[in-house]
Write a structure and sequence with these properties.
single chain; about 475 residues; mainly alpha; 21 helices; 2 strands
């Protein structure tokens, strides 16, 4: 069966599969063990620290969660989805026609996210999540006059003046809130529609990542990553949080730039730029997505999409600025608001590494093993990409560079001190691009690694109440 489209000279050459012998597995298992140890230490130290003085502002660090063993309506479905992907996912990923694989991966991710969310029940797990006191839907009625609301948006960020925004509204540019205002305007108001919207857009990021990996590193590696993307542990926090929606938008921006760079598509470049501009007005931390975007250009060794990308991207800040909201004026106020709340209490000394333990739970132990292979391949991949006379990167080198860019963006967010706790939810736009590292793992062990990924998500969702 033919699975590749016509050859593309800009697409890297395929490499043979990684060795699957026992010696190749041992370092991967060690890396996974180190990840598990990091989580265990973060739990132990965090529990003692929180119990002693409450500074961590999290009941079950390194996650923002509380201990609550339970099952629910979504439990049978979640177990069924996990078992089906572990049993049949790798084979289907290898054999399905490409477009059908994209749809299947998206549908599987949807089933996985919904089933995990429904462990808490429809109301508690989906319909209520975006209506609590910190969330966007609490301020819909204050956006009856959108231009006026945008002009006065910065006046309500800092705690003190009357009518300050709820935490999540104040903590994000107004693009996030406007999304839910517009949903309400078209008749899709309320927490249920908002939750479904975030889940559907968040799950679509799976297809976006597969498209980008195929364009940059070839179809073989994209197919090997597909089951891991569909069964991502961070699906626990995609359903339901607005960060899942942010992750989906950011993922499509990167995917469309990869398409623009490899297929010389002006439309894809413009769409990518527009989505990147919108991404920057969804979260103050997401301009860091520029690192994977720049890496796309590095891998493809082209600057052709840059001008249409930038032209389209700049339309978003231009529109917001002309309407009365200035990103650069709002961000310093957001920093002030951050330190007025839990961010001013939570100790950097714990969260700068505790965040990484939360990230390990979000991406799973298979990704930790894949990142070991990514880091081992980084020196040669980086030297090859930066050397102007060397040929285009190989498939594995291209994938290594893409994953490395996401990892660097994540580390920059961590070191900034503006992401102390809740990173299992907030860093979803970066997690999407770490999961393809699993494509570097040996083929023979894929089902075992998929089982480990599913196990992490199922344990977290059934043992603690995440609040998201």
């Amino acid at each position: 069966m033919k699975t590749e489209e016509r050859s593309d000279s800009s697409r890297p050459a395929e490499e043979p599969a990684a060795p699957a012998g026992r010696a190749g597995h041992r370092p991967d298992l060690v890396a996974a063990g180190v990840g598990a140890l990091l989580v265990a230490v973060a739990c132990g130290v965090g529990w003692a620290w929180q119990r002693s003085n409450g500074e961590l502002q999290a009941q079950w660090p390194p996650l923002l969660a509380s201990w609550n063993p339970h099952v629910g309506p979504g439990t049978p479905a979640a177990l069924t989805v996990a078992a089906a992907v572990v049993a049949y996912g790798p084979a289907l990923a290898d054999r399905l026609p490409w477009r059908r694989l994209l749809l299947t991966a998206w549908a599987t991710a949807l089933a996985w996210i919904f089933s995990l969310a429904l462990i808490e029940g429809w109301y508690r797990g989906i319909a209520r999540r975006l209506t609590t006191k910190h969330e966007y839907l609490r301020v819909i009625d204050r956006f009856d006059d959108i231009p006026a609301a945008l002009r006065g948006f910065t006046d309500h960020i800092v705690v003190g003046p009357p009518g300050n925004w709820p935490a999540h509204v104040a903590g994000h540019p107004p693009g996030a809130t406007l999304t839910f205002v517009w949903l309400d305007r078209i008749g899709l108001g309320g927490g249920a529609w908002a939750g479904v919207f975030c889940i559907v857009l968040g799950a679509s990021g799976v297809a976006a990542v597969l498209i980008a990996v195929r364009a940059l590193a070839g179809e073989r590696l994209a197919r090997r990553a597909a089951p891991f993307l569909a069964l991502a542990p961070f699906a626990v926090w995609t359903g339901t949080s607005a960060d899942g929606y942010f992750a989906g938008v950011a993922a499509w921006s990167i995917a469309l730039l990869a398409v623009a760079a490899t297929r010389r598509s002006l439309l894809a470049a413009c769409a990518s730029g527009l989505l990147f501009g919108w991404t920057c007005y969804l979260s103050y931390g997401l301009p860091l997505i520029v690192l994977p975007l720049a890496t796309v250009l590095l891998i493809t060794r082209t600057t052709r999409p840059v001008l249409p990308f930038l032209t389209a991207a700049l339309t978003v800040p231009l529109a917001f600025t002309l309407t009365g909201f200035a990103w650069w004026e709002a961000y310093p106020l957001l920093v002030e608001r951050y330190y007025q709340g839990a961010g001013g209490v939570r100790p950097y000394a714990y969260w700068v590494w505790g965040n990484l333990a939360a990230a390990t739970l979000a991406v799973g132990l298979a990704t930790a093993a894949g990142l070991r292979r990514t880091l081992a391949a980084t020196p040669s991949a980086a030297l090859g990409a930066l050397h102007p006379r060397r040929p285009a990167p190989t498939a594995e080198a291209a994938l290594t560079l893409l994953v490395l860019a996401a990892l660097l963006a994540l580390l920059a967010a961590d070191l900034s001190g503006m992401s102390k706790a809740e990173t299992e939810r907030i860093w979803q736009p970066f997690y999407f691009w770490l999961l393809p590292a699993t494509a570097l793992l040996p083929v023979r062990g894929r089902r075992g690694w998929l089982g480990a990924q599913a196990g992490v998500a199922l344990l977290v969702n059934h043992l603690v109440w995440t609040g998201w």
